[in-house]
């Protein structure tokens, strides 16, 4: 995820919170034309945030799958090196956990 996407998502979430707070302030007194406008703005903000989060989730799933596929391919291409690395990691973890 690029910094631009992160910044836009944060901006959208801040806008959502600000609109929700304004909506709460207006509804304390009465439901007027301002209430309807703010409700629509809040709904639009929620929908934008949901779309961006869904897009982000899909992109992250693709990245995780690509990383897992890469790891699987590496292990298939280098089984002995992978076994050695796993063994070394097991020994290190065993030593660290054995100290407790």
Please provide a written account of the structure.
With 100 residues, this protein is mainly α. It has one domain. It contains three helices and no strands. It has helices at residues 3-29, 33-77, 79-98. 0% of the residues are buried. The model has no long low-confidence stretch (mean pLDDT 81).
Mean pLDDT rating? 81
Q: From the alpha-carbon coordinates, what is the Rg to the nearest angstrom? A: 25 Å
How many individual domains?
A: 1
Low-confidence stretches: none
Question: Key features?
Answer:
elongated, 92% helix, 100 residues
Produce the secondary structure layout:
Elements: H1 3-29, H2 33-77, H3 79-98
Helix pairs in contact: 1-2, 2-3
Short description:
The protein has 100 residues and is mostly helical. It is 92% helix and 0% strand.
């Amino acid at each position: 995820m690029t910094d631009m996407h992160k910044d836009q998502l944060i901006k959208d979430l801040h806008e959502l919170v600000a609109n929700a707070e304004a909506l709460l302030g207006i509804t304390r007194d009465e439901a007027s034309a301002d209430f309807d406008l703010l409700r629509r703005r809040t709904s639009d903000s929620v929908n934008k945030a949901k779309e961006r989060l869904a897009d982000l989730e899909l992109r992250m799933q693709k990245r995780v799958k690509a990383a897992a596929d890469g790891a699987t391919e590496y292990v298939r291409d280098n089984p002995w090196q992978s076994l050695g690395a796993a063994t070394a990691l097991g020994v290190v973890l065993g030593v660290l956990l054995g100290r407790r």
